[in-house]
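Case study.
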Amino acid sequence: MNGAQSLIRTLVDAGVEVCFSNPGTSEMHFVAALDSVPEMRGVLGLFEGAVTGAADGYARMAGRPAATLLHLGPGLGNGLANLHNARRAHTPIVNIVGDHATYHKKYDAPLESDIDAIASSLEGWVRRSEHTKDVGADAAAAVAAAQDAPGRIATLILPADASWGEGGETCTPIPPRAPQSVDATTVKKIAEVLRSGESVALLIGGAACREPGLLATSRIAAVTGVKAFAETFPARLERGAGLPSIDRLGYLAEQVAYQLDGVKHVIVAGTKPPVSFFAYPSKPSDLVPEGAQVHVLAEVGQDATGALNDVAALVAPDTAPVLQEASRPALPSGPLTAQNWADVIGALLPERAIIADEANTSGLLIPAATAGAPRHDVLTLTGGAIGYGIPVATGAAVAAPDRPVVNLQSDGSALYTISALWTQARENLNVTTVILNNHAYAILRIELQRVGAAPDGPKANDLLDLSRPDMDFAKIAEGLGVPATRATTADELAEQFARALAEPGPHLIDAAVPSLI
Amino acid sequence: MNGAQSLIRTLVDAGVEVCFSNPGTSEMHFVAALDSVPEMRGVLGLFEGAVTGAADGYARMAGRPAATLLHLGPGLGNGLANLHNARRAHTPIVNIVGDHATYHKKYDAPLESDIDAIASSLEGWVRRSEHTKDVGADAAAAVAAAQDAPGRIATLILPADASWGEGGETCTPIPPRAPQSVDATTVKKIAEVLRSGESVALLIGGAACREPGLLATSRIAAVTGVKAFAETFPARLERGAGLPSIDRLGYLAEQVAYQLDGVKHVIVAGTKPPVSFFAYPSKPSDLVPEGAQVHVLAEVGQDATGALNDVAALVAPDTAPVLQEASRPALPSGPLTAQNWADVIGALLPERAIIADEANTSGLLIPAATAGAPRHDVLTLTGGAIGYGIPVATGAAVAAPDRPVVNLQSDGSALYTISALWTQARENLNVTTVILNNHAYAILRIELQRVGAAPDGPKANDLLDLSRPDMDFAKIAEGLGVPATRATTADELAEQFARALAEPGPHLIDAAVPSLI
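After joint prediction, the assembly is written out as follows.
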């Protein structure tokens, strides 16, 4: 057994059964070894950002890590932006980064680079597996490290000779560290804050954004009147009819100020106190209202859901959660607007959908339009590195082949990782991509105003404009093997969206949704 | 004057007049400041790999750096692969990487990441400009550092508050370090090696691959019989009728063994002794023939061209260089083959063309087919990080608007940075892209055999196959605003190539060139 075979066998034994791959020469023995371990599925991406984003989407839905296969430093570099998003989502991922053979590194061949420095920027787990006999053990350690609560990026650097050498040994799985429980004293203290009679906000994040956490949060809110919010960008938020509807904290500081107006206490569970996404001249970075006190129920990595249940048992033992009733917008008609496209999605969102949401400015009205839709999951842009939507939708569809995936995708963010559409076609994944094509970096038009960087002259505006030339996403998609249509009215969008959902395999709709500004 | 204005003014004063940009919120003051410095041209890319590759192509042709504008760590990460290639090309580039405001960093907002670690992997010059009044001086230092011989990546990290703060001061340009001259003793020693009567190879690289270096090399070879080669992947190689024709060292170790067979001395000038691109089991990494001695005429960063001229003055004072005669292949006919597509390019390559060569396996016969074509420049994949061709062609066309740019582009490498086609359309650049569409990572099929990673099973082969689904590059190009055609015969390719060159603006030809293996 060579090193690559011991690696893949160990990964599979530890529950890692998909490897999103963009290999090169130094990974050829890994590629060859795939055929010796039938349980491992190799999924090809044509760009590493598609690969790492897919691994993120996969683990958010599967609840266990995928592996990635990347080619040296440049491959890891290309994958870095979506690994950044995955880091912020606390998604477990096991990167296998091929490197030159150990004895070859001293020659400083063209592809030699400082992989360790690049990997270190992810602030996760990094190890270089230099000896064939250790590769299995290092792989088991990587899978455990990736899954240690709350989840992180584990990067195993695999020199070619460690991969091709004989004498590989598989390693039994290492159990990852479970989330730490919150002690009873903290739970009691939080219960006291909730009973203080003062205005309190409760901000939940991480795994608490799934059903059990939402139910506990709703019970607490029902009895105490606390203002409950999900963090601005949850990795996975469960929503829809039959679940408590917990609003997300806004992206703009102005929204958050409105949401937290008058609050004297901010309780956080599984997330951090709110901060501004960016700094703005003369505006605060810390979004906790002045004079309000922060209380930590559960740190990131602690069992926030258990803690919320413990608090609910104290303050709301006999209170039922408030569940969202089923309700959908009426199907609209007429030319597409920033409002009516969201209503189309709300009206037609299928049962058990997974929404990969990178609609950005165009998606402002989506939460309201889909609140009463059938139960669904929303995956969001946790790290702010755009180009996440198409790959994450791809990975989510690999993880949940029986569920429809809907990717709401702004045009400005689509080109970073557009090639993931090809992987959707290759794997025949049930992903419907709706491109919100407003021909602009609309978010930046807003931000140019917000940072006070006036006057905005012609050159500045030109750098935020995507209309010269207009992109034809239907053609791009078809070129990548994904059937595509174009919608300019709500009626067309509805008809095309329904049809795309009804047919197996990927589809793309280029929707001419005008910009909000 | 704010920091951003002082930065752009200082860049322009130092000769940096193009900024390839993919900005975000933290760069909005830089974007706004573009309108206050008319000499700076902002060129928008839709993905950072397109931006950094364009900066590489620009500087290779312009001989001076462009700036890039990148959005925090993920933006730099996305740009890293083509910065790696630029580093290997010794291309001067000035990265401006926006960061959060200094006081905002402690909040660990979603886009916070370790930019310094990522930048450090480029082994160039990195500085964080924390105070508005220093931004101008830091920019001047960055431009000088980028241009210090032999050229490198300079990365200036610009916190948003340093950018928007008032009190910016422009700084006068700092002269960069010129290449160091080679001393007379070394020149004499090399002349003795050349006169030894033993078999000698002379390997030139860097700036020595341009006309003056080639002329000196040819004179030396003409009188001494030395086997002269250009390095395998030169940043910019001048070729064609009227110039000495100096073969490049091969990519495969087997080719190099053939080229250097029997050689007892290897002289290097402006490059390093040859090493294998990758390691292969039981094959040497060091490609200097066993027992041969290495002699350094000029280290990388020294004045190799001057040194070659000094050697020529000693050993070949009255010898003229041997110049390539004009000669072109006949225009071929019939279905496209690995041979005849190269003949089409050789037959029709226009005067003063710039070839951005990422043809990989499909391009094996291009050097022979174009050797006697009109004088042209060839830009090559210096660092081995694929996805370089389309962006480098884009940047070269910005630098040399009066010259035709021809991008020979393999399909497997095209998807990494495909969005650079949009920038070509936006800027109406004279780039003709020929996609060599063989529906495979053909190089990896070769490498899978070469590394001895047999047996190659169905899963392994599937990861090297791009035919499921086939990509339609003509549709993709049209979707990005570039007119495109499809060629399946040499006649069609010739007709479409000639037409694309005759019309202004970008064009793409999807050429169905079968794989060599």
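Observations recorded in class. DSSP finds 20 helices and 17 strands in chain B. The first strand of chain B starts at residue 18 and ends at 21. We will return to this complex in the next lecture.
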